[in-house]
Design brief:
single chain; globular; 19 helices; disordered N terminus
């Protein structure tokens, strides 16, 4: 995936790695770390504005492309709504912090807007980002296996889960742990599987690199102990395998139909099997497997009750949205200054929470940014299965998806991979 990207023809355009490319890499790799500490955010904000400043004076056409991107228009509208909702119930400092976090989290699509028409240096930039992705993943795995384990008995759960609920739990940890990199990793695994199946990786070196990246990412996803993320990834991979664009539609539908029938007929037996197997495992994932198995087996115990509760949380947010469908309730909690859960928001679903928080006024523009991104990736030429999009939907429906690492994958790395390999296959 890395080595032969340099074979992509750029027809007369220089491959020189320019200042804007260097700043793009520094900025993207820096936010890939994912920390939300105050000093980190100051540096990230500074790097973003340096990138914007350099782009403004080096490539005005890219700036115009970003400004005219429909996602930019929607983002600006959402940011205005979110800022004014926040200022009603929260200090100005908090509102500005949330504003800048959101702007930088969506900045990867702006950076990709620049490289749509400036692909000469994109192979090198993407290769460096893949190295950074693997490096951050290995660093987080090392953290989870060492420092995280030391605190595991104290907190009673894995390090990734601790960081989600308490960002200061491990002091001045530079790595932004939690689940966001796992969300991006789940999407990435679906894409890599797709590229293997559809033979978009012709050389041995590309296959080897893709395997290394996938194994590292897969280990990280599993180590975060996010059951919903793992399930979403597995479902995405299954859909990728049986419902690819390059596969025969009739065969795919038959496999899918038999799979559903098999699952319905064997649900109780599958549930009992999961309960038995989870007894040999440790950690949060084993608890969730047992919980899911209890639900399938119809045991009606506490574990099955937890599973039902976890899957119903998004509908809790939808209920809040239906009570205040136009403006939502974010103005009541100051855009997160007070916990949204106090006002009934489930806080576990990106899609449903956005509607509950901002109503139709801010929620629809926000969700349209993701919709347009999926639509843009789909029409970029290279045929991909819908598996990664199914994974994205599940991740966002049952998890708070938004984050630096997850957005780098969705808004930059996946479209960059599609664009580069489409160009190479078509000798552009």
């Amino acid at each position: 995936m890395v080595s032969q990207m340099k074979d992509i023809s750029s027809k007369g355009r220089s491959r020189q790695f320019r200042l804007i490319d260097i700043i793009s890499f520094i900025y993207l790799s820096f936010i890939l770390i994912g920390s939300l500490s105050q000093s980190y955010m100051y540096i990230a904000t500074g790097l973003f504005f340096v990138w914007l400043f350099v782009l403004l004076f080096s490539n005005l056409s890219s700036v115009k492309r970003i400004v005219h991107d429909r996602k930019t228009v929607l983002l600006v509208f959402y940011l205005i709504v979110a800022f004014f909702y926040g200022i009603i119930s929260a200090p100005l400092e908090h509102c500005l912090k949330v504003f800048m976090e959101a702007l930088m989290m969506f900045s990867p699509f702006m950076i990709f807007d620049h490289y749509k028409k400036n692909t000469a240096s994109l192979p090198i930039l993407l290769s460096l980002l893949l190295v950074a992705w693997v490096g951050v993943s290995i660093a987080m795995l090392e953290f989870y296996n060492t420092i995280g384990n030391l605190y595991g008995d104290f907190y009673g759960e894995g390090a990734a889960r601790v960081v989600v609920s308490d960002k200061e739990a491990f002091g001045g940890m530079i790595l932004g742990g939690g689940y966001c990199i796992a969300y991006g990793g789940a999407l990435f695994v679906c894409v890599i599987v797709n590229m293997f199946l559809d033979k978009y990786l012709p050389s041995f070196i590309e296959k080897l690199i893709a395997v290394i990246v996938m194994i590292t990412t897969l280990m990280l996803v599993l180590k975060t102990e996010s059951t919903i993320t793992t399930i979403s990834m597995v479902v995405g991979v299954i859909v990728t395998i049986i419902y690819r664009d390059n596969a025969k539609a009739g065969t795919s539908k038959i496999f899918l139909l038999f799979g559903i029938i098999f699952f319905l007929l064997c649900a109780k037996s599958i549930g009992k099997f999961l309960i038995e197997q989870s007894a040999n495992l440790e950690g949060v994932v084993s608890q969730r497997i047992a919980s899911f198995g209890a639900s399938l087996a119809g045991s009606g115990d506490g574990d099955s009750d937890y599973t039902k509760m976890r899957f119903l949380i998004p509908f809790q947010s939808l209920g809040v949205f239906l009570e205040s469908p136009i403006i939502g309730v974010s103005y009541l909690h100051g855009n997160g200054f007070v916990s949204p859960e106090v006002f009934g928001v489930g806080n576990h679903s990106e899609w449903c929470d956005a509607l509950a928080d901002y109503g139709l006024l801010g929620g629809v523009p926000y969700l349209l940014i993701y919709f347009l991104q999926v639509k843009e990736i789909k029409r970029m030429g290279l045929k991909f299965s819908i598996g990664w999009a199914v994974c994205l939907f599940l991740l966002g429906f049952f998890n708070p998806f938004r984050g630096f690492q997850s957005h780098i994958m969705l808004f930059f790395m996946i479209p960059a991979i599609k664009l580069l390999y489409f160009n190479r296959l078509n000798n552009i």
